[in-house]
Amino acid sequence: MTETAADTVMDVKVDQTTETTDILPNQTIYVNNINEKLSQKKLKEQLYGLFSKYGTILEIISSKRQKMKGQAFIVFQDITAASNALREMNGFSFFDRNINVQYSKNKSDAVSKLDGTYVEKKRERETEQEKRKAKKQDNKKSTKQSKTTSTSTPSGNVAPREAPPNRILFVENLPDNCQEMMIQMLFSQFPGFQSVNMTTARKGVAFVEYDDDIKSGLAMSHLQGFKVTSDRPMVISFAAQ
């Protein structure tokens, strides 16, 4: 295994010392509390000499990186060898340190190649990148759809117009038989109300006037989408000047 690959494995397994009771017996053991003064070459040589008596060792993984020092992974050919090594070597004094030995949380590349489940790290990273890219695109689509929905009414056929805030509101999507008195009752409950004007040239619309744009904006925020009838939510915007 190359140095880069070893670093990747060590990064994945840096939290190995937690929640060990749930780890199932496997061919790889994790060794930590190793004397950090040992060079990587000497460490591997000494570990091989110490653990090879329990069975065939496929691989010893360690890293030169500072935060990864003091730990290593030893991959045996079979679980029996790994189990015997763990049982007898846990707590063993190794270069003035009592080492901790436990089963590894993750399967090593060497074992994966033996059982046919190995996936190259490069391809694995590419797959993760593809997943992240797809997720990002989905999020963009969701955001776009959300924006589209927010600018349309539940009926989907009328959207609020865009105009600078002012004291006159333009109300649309009213029922054809809607009376001026009904609109006045709705909008007069807000401060600053002055008048309602329903046009005869076009059904289903009205203009509502307030003292200023702050009061008209307050009324709009409260009544936007209010259903005069069950299928006709009001669409309110500032009137074009």
Automatic annotation (TrEMBL):
<keyword id="KW-0677">Repeat</keyword>
<dbReference type="InterPro" id="IPR012677">
    <property type="entry name" value="Nucleotide-bd_a/b_plait_sf"/>
</dbReference>
<feature type="compositionally biased region" description="Basic and acidic residues">
    <location>
        <begin position="120"/>
        <end position="141"/>
    </location>
</feature>
<dbReference type="GO" id="GO:0005681">
    <property type="term" value="C:spliceosomal complex"/>
</dbReference>
<keyword id="KW-0747">Spliceosome</keyword>
<comment type="similarity">
    <text>Belongs to the RRM U1 A/B'' family.</text>
</comment>
<keyword id="KW-0694">RNA-binding</keyword>
<dbReference type="GO" id="GO:0003723">
    <property type="term" value="F:RNA binding"/>
</dbReference>
<dbReference type="InterPro" id="IPR035979">
    <property type="entry name" value="RBD_domain_sf"/>
</dbReference>
<dbReference type="GO" id="GO:0006397">
    <property type="term" value="P:mRNA processing"/>
</dbReference>
<dbReference type="InterPro" id="IPR000504">
    <property type="entry name" value="RRM_dom"/>
</dbReference>
<dbReference type="GO" id="GO:0008380">
    <property type="term" value="P:RNA splicing"/>
</dbReference>
<feature type="region of interest" description="Disordered">
    <location>
        <begin position="120"/>
        <end position="166"/>
    </location>
</feature>
<feature type="domain" description="RRM">
    <location>
        <begin position="167"/>
        <end position="241"/>
    </location>
</feature>
<dbReference type="GO" id="GO:0030532">
    <property type="term" value="C:small nuclear ribonucleoprotein complex"/>
</dbReference>
<keyword id="KW-0507">mRNA processing</keyword>
<keyword id="KW-0687">Ribonucleoprotein</keyword>
<feature type="compositionally biased region" description="Low complexity">
    <location>
        <begin position="145"/>
        <end position="155"/>
    </location>
</feature>
<feature type="domain" description="RRM">
    <location>
        <begin position="27"/>
        <end position="106"/>
    </location>
</feature>
<keyword id="KW-0539">Nucleus</keyword>
<keyword id="KW-0508">mRNA splicing</keyword>
<protein>
    <submittedName>
        <fullName>U2 small nuclear ribonucleoprotein B</fullName>
    </submittedName>
</protein>
<dbReference type="Pfam" id="PF00076">
    <property type="entry name" value="RRM_1"/>
</dbReference>
